[in-house]
Design brief:
Two copies of one chain form a homodimer. Chain A is α+β, with helices and mostly antiparallel strands. Chain A is built from eleven helices and 13 strands.
Chain lengths: 399, 399
Amino acid sequence: MKQPSLPLPLGFLASGVHAGLKGKDKPDMALFCSRLPALTVGMVTTNKVKAAPAKHTEKALKAGFKIQAVVVNTKNANALTGRQGERDVQATVREAARLLSLPPQAVLVHSTGVIGVPLPMPKILLGVRQCVLRLSRAGGLDAANAILTTDTFPKYGFRTLKLGGKKACLTGFAKGSGMIHPNMATMLVYLLTDAGVNRGLLNRALREAVGESFHRITVDGDVSTNDSVILMANGACGNKPIASRGADYRAFAGALKELCLDLAKAVVRDGEGATKFVSITLQGASDEADAYRAAMAVAKSPLVKTALFGADPNWGRVLAAVGYSGAAVDEFKAKVVIGGYRLYDGGREVAWSRDRLKKILSQRDISIVVDLGLGKARTTVYTCDLSDGYIDINGRYTT
Amino acid sequence: MKQPSLPLPLGFLASGVHAGLKGKDKPDMALFCSRLPALTVGMVTTNKVKAAPAKHTEKALKAGFKIQAVVVNTKNANALTGRQGERDVQATVREAARLLSLPPQAVLVHSTGVIGVPLPMPKILLGVRQCVLRLSRAGGLDAANAILTTDTFPKYGFRTLKLGGKKACLTGFAKGSGMIHPNMATMLVYLLTDAGVNRGLLNRALREAVGESFHRITVDGDVSTNDSVILMANGACGNKPIASRGADYRAFAGALKELCLDLAKAVVRDGEGATKFVSITLQGASDEADAYRAAMAVAKSPLVKTALFGADPNWGRVLAAVGYSGAAVDEFKAKVVIGGYRLYDGGREVAWSRDRLKKILSQRDISIVVDLGLGKARTTVYTCDLSDGYIDINGRYTT
């Protein structure tokens, strides 16, 4: 996914700077900006303890304001910071609006990092100024790097497409490595496009894309206080704004889905401490809901994830997790296949070799397929292994 | 909880032997036996993928058979072993019944260990014979040691009480270290008593005791395929069998509750890789269900548990977990107190010292109190930290 430079859609600028929140000159603040007011839709964490910036974003999205700027800071989540946290959001919004000559309602701010500590406002305000000064068409990669926390690589991508004869562009950014679990939204994700799309269809396309990407990944099952996915469409490519579910909508929604899935997979691949990327396909389920909850139970199970880390041929934990997921399961109909290797088939004896399975589990990419043999529903979700790296990162996160 | 010897209730015998399932002469099979037919009640895992022995136990309990013997093997769970697994249960039952001159329906067998591997029946049958030969009134500690898997110490306890002028005894055994999460039953637990109690009240006392003990602990959130809690009452102490909820019932139920809580706490203290014992009290919740789900979300959160392991003063993760638990929460009313130290108070600034909190988190026993400030419901649950020891144990469990 890495590339030398990252195209931004027409009318968009970006920047990433070191504002002194993190040590060692690490970039820690970013700004995404559209020269034109952009129709903006999004999804915010369902955690009832929402960070002040997440609450602000939720309100702005609900009001339907056209957005032109999103300020992002890392290191500090501005969550559980009381009224002071809300005042700090407002102060950041005001400063960005002033410097960019925008109305305050066109500005969003997002934070990610430690919970329960007040924002260092002097640094933040100075950071906003630096971000504004550095805004450029070539600033995409800087922004991609500046939104990271425990991530080990930046996550971004783009798609180009033709909409009514016009060339449109869609560029996406994600950060997220721990506290990753779907619950109507995950992590911080910015999707920028110069396509014109009406609000209803923009919303629909985002929800469909998130449903098949960010809602199908888990790292640790913890739901963040700050997750937000934002899609900004400024219409600068000049297409006749998409207003029906015809070919143009399908092209746009398809590109968005692909991009979101790429970003979601990158988040899992970079899960905290992850050494393996694991896809779990649950097929033959009675219905969609069963397929999803069974797949997610496997993807979340600490016992499955530690066995994957250790390449321990302990496949029984996969069906044990399906068993407590709530999904209908009959052990005499279920099958388990890992890396193409059949290990369990409805309770009939399967001759499998520990060595061969250990070899499969030692690879960096692992596919697990569970067939419940009960129906036709099917889903695929993505997870990573659980390693001592996760313990190490999260046992000293604030220190 | 350790003591030089362990009294067994009148009429009970026990043994623990090395049957060659584990290496290095480690004890790996146990037998609990009552000379008199014992009224027996119990609870079995709610996992839909139940091990063959768990299914057999469920059926026997439902039929209301009086039980006289429980054979336990470790190292192999006899789960996901198809019809062969069921036949192996029957063969074990038959051999124990034959050697003990009991009807087969008076015998239960339990297994714990790796899932999906057939039992090594020659060793198991030889182990049954050894267990029968070693049965004795002094065999309690041997049995307590022989039911362990990844446990690092045996878990047992006893209570004596007066029932209608007769001295009664209640002795309990538990094993369990990983795959610990409440779901109507947990781990393997054997509760033996010479008290006489009618079936309805025996059942009631067990369900109440489990609800306040084994259902309030979690190690890793994985629900086992083999969990069983068994309570055998043979009436040998000679009391008039308890048939009403009077003083005798209250004495018996109280002793059972205490014993179960002791055993449950010991399971958490010995959680896989655990370095800390953590009690989480959730008070001021709108209702019982909210108190329980919020407390359990904190107890399960990998981010809370790794921070506890690392003594990282990252208390914000506690309320973040409450926030996604589904419980009603208002950040402007909630309070967080760890080790008696107030860290968060309804979003008002609290001056807390990282050093002091780090010191509290470095202790072996940690109490977390969350007050939601919304109502009067309250519960306490128990968990342990998540350390690299857990990863180490579970990354090489079968190897």
